[in-house]
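BUG: 3D viewer hangs when loading the predicted structure for this chain

Environment: internal workstation, default settings.
Expected: structure renders.
Actual: progress bar stalls at 90%.

Input used:
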Amino acid sequence: MGLPGIKKSSIWRVAILLGLSALLYGCPSYTANIKDGSFDVSLPKPFWGSGTYIYPDELYIRGSLSYSIEDKESLPLKDVEEDGSKKLQGDQDIRYVLQNNPFSGSVDIFFKKWPLFLGGRLAAELGSSGLVPSLLVFYGINGIYGEFGLGTRLGYSKDNAKYSGTYVHEPCSIDGCWDEEKGDFEEEHFYKNVNIGIYAFSSLFVTETLSLNFSTGFYQPWLFRYSVYLENVPSPYDYDITIDFPFLFSQYVGVTYTLLNHIQLSAGETVYYTPYSDKLHWQTTFSMSYLF
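Structure tokens produced before the viewer hung:
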């Protein structure tokens, strides 16, 4: 016999809600916050297209060797967010450590069907961060007076990360909560990262052999890596730190000189920056290429 005016289904709903409330009340909480962190970043070399007039209906293969001059330096970050919505709490020193990868090699293949051209690049960089392979596809318009186009780069890197901070564990049960456990942690891990870049490039053909080159890039160095590991804490799998890693922009200005229709000598300057930092990073690149 039920209560007058109250359905059995309503009683069950109330009972379930009370049970869930009791369970949630008794759940322990685990929170952690990074106070100091450095995350390696391997900056991609600039891409400025073909740098020369391409004859229609011909397949080009270009092999290139490049050398870059830059410092291995830190890029302090500000307004870094946790969980994609809130800033990391308290005072932090979070920074990108820009790796020095001076040597690089690439092979380009491109084809032109007037006035459009398209192609791809397979590249590898070697330096303090090890071997950094990448694949780039591009397309655009190439004419007598210049060219412009777009490119997309996909790369792979193994990056080191060091970070330290504090953790808080508040033990709770259905009977209530008791004294919280606090402590410090210090971690160092290597992460396998996929990174992506998007480019807009253009060239002005000053003469048949000389061109001015420009490129603007967007780069996300930690594309799929948002959660960082915590191992040096009690119950490490109960903690989660999710960081919204900032992106980078690049601007390149350079010049290319073509000899004997096959040899290309290029030099230029790239500046890397992000709205999450007040510091700029400069890179000078020299390259020698051969067009087959």
